[in-house]
């Protein structure tokens, strides 16, 4: 869990959407892999394969790669409609990134706190982090976000 996720007074820190990602020092998104054709899906698939030429209904859970490449990005200048819960009043824009993972799928997500569109460039590496999304009566609810990887770190991963 990101260090910014501090527990609510009751001490509870839980994912906003159960079963979509792991937490801990190296969080990962949880997808599925079709047992028949190998197609990877996110979020997890439970009914039918996303591959139109496959009719399988059997899947294995897989942890997806933590790092990916920025495929596209934008910012949310206008507040999304409900059920979106704004983090501040007045609303503060945030960046979104579509990230291509080595598994061959593109996953959209918010960019980590403290980063915006000026910190993103198509082709740059980002990694998955878990940060607070909101706090309610049950405690802190977390989500995954994409954090730009420092240029020095990108050179060391080759």
Task: Describe it.
The chain is mostly beta strands and 158 residues long. The chain is 4% helix and 37% strand. It has one helix and nine strands, in the order βββββββββα. It has one helix spanning 151-156, and strands spanning 13-15, 30-34, 40-41, 59-63, 67-76, 94-100, 106-110, 125-136, 139-148. The strands form two sheets. The chain has a six-stranded mixed beta sheet, with no helix packed on it. The protein has a three-stranded antiparallel beta sheet with strand order 3-2-4, with no helix packed on it. β6 (94-100) and β7 (106-110) form a beta hairpin. The radius of gyration is 17 Å and the shape is globular. The protein starts with 12 loop residues before the first strand and ends with a helix. Residues 1-9 have low confidence and may be disordered.
Topology:
Elements: E1 13-15, E2 30-34, E3 40-41, E4 59-63, E5 67-76, E6 94-100, E7 106-110, E8 125-136, E9 139-148, H1 151-156
Parallel strand pairs: 1-9
Antiparallel strand pairs: 2-3, 2-4, 5-6, 5-8, 6-7, 8-9
Measured as a percent range, the helix fraction is under 10%
SSE sequence, one letter per element: EEEEEEEEEH
Structural class: mainly beta
Q: Give the overall pLDDT as a whole number.
A: 87
Which geometry do the CA atoms define? globular
How many strand elements?
9
The radius of gyration is 17 Å
The major beta sheet can be summarized as: 6 strands, mixed
Order of strands side by side in the largest beta sheet? Answer: 1-9-8-5-6-7
| Terminal-residue CA separation | 26 Å
Helix count, DSSP H or I runs of 4 or more residues: 1
- Enumerate the spans where pLDDT stays under 50 for 5 or more consecutive residues: 1-9
What percent strand? 35-45%
């Amino acid at each position: 869990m990101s260090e910014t996720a501090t527990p609510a007074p009751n001490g509870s820190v839980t994912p906003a959407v159960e079963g979509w990602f792991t937490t801990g020092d190296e969080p990962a998104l949880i997808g599925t892999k079709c047992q028949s054709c190998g197609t990877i899906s996110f979020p997890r698939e439970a009914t039918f394969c996303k591959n139109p030429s496959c009719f399988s209904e059997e899947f294995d859970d897989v942890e997806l790669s933590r790092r990916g490449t920025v495929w596209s990005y934008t910012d949310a200048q206008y507040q999304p409609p409900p059920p979106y819960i704004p983090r501040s009043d007045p609303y503060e824009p945030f960046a979104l990134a579509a990230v291509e993972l080595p598994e061959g799928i593109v996953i959209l997500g918010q960019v980590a706190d403290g980063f915006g569109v000026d910190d993103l460039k198509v082709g740059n590496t980002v990694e998955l982090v878990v940060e607070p999304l909101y706090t309610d009566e049950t405690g802190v609810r977390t989500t995954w976000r994409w954090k730009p990887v420092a240029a020095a770190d990108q050179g060391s991963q080759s």
